Each structure stands twice: as C-alpha cells, then as structure tokens.
Amino acid sequence: MSMDALDQLYREVILDHHRHPRGRHDIDRVDVEASGLNPSCGDEVTLQLQVEGDRITDVAVIGRGCAVSTASGSILAELVKGHTIEDARRIAEIFKRMMHGEDPPAETDLGDLEALTGVRQFPVRIKCALLPWVTLLDAAVARAEGRTGKTITTE
Ligand code: ZN
Fold it and tell me: Residue 42 Cα, ligand 1 centroid: separation in angstroms?
C-alpha cells in the first residue's frame, strides 16, 4: 500500500472512532477508576473498569479531547474489554513502544490500534494517543494496590 493510502486508512479509522466513540456508557459497578490529563493539548480522560477476578468485564471511557485522544480511548474500550488486567497492561506497553518507533511483536493483533501509529509522524500528537493507555496503566497499578479511589495522572 502506498504511504498516501495508508495515511487515508489511518485517518478513516481515527475519524470513525472519533465520531462514534466506544465505551461511552455507564457501567454497573466501578471497581477501579483512573483519570489522565494531557495539558499540552487539553485532553482529559477518565477510565472506569469493572473487574471480575482479574478480568475486565466492562470499560467506560469518559472525557473530552482531540480526535486522536478520543479515538485512542475508543479503541482502548474495544480492545481491553474481556481481557485480563495483565493482558491489557501488556497491550498498553506494546503500544507505548510502538509510538516511540518500535515494531509490534509479530504475533500481536492490535486491531485498530495499529492505525494510531500513523500519528507518530506528528510528534505533538503522540501524547494524545498515549493518554488513555497511560491512564490504563495507572488503573492497573491502582487495582494491584487495592485502591478503588481516583488516581490522577498528568502526562
Ligand atoms: Zn490531543
């Protein structure tokens, strides 16, 4: 695929998630919650997770921000629901490394998240793309430490 076609694909995936963000619903029970802020763009996100054992059974993504951060939060809601916290943490770490230029491990299927790596060519947007995932990592830490209250991160 040509670079232009790839750029077009990236844009379409991001715009679709931006226009129809997933995870914008109330969840039955909030077991862990974390919030993140990206001051350089003004993006805000709060993640609420419902957890059974160590499995994420529902995700709510609350917030406002640019198309990239909104799309990233939407993709997060789609990708991590049904996974264990450990799997979700692993995806977040892989995505962080990808945004800093590494290729994903060969067997990894990151779905629409791969489209977001197109954002790497706009360095100022990397923090926008990472915000929901950095916030998820904080939620995982909060869960591991048995904290249920709010965790606020400033990236
Ligand atoms: Zn942003």
Answer: 6
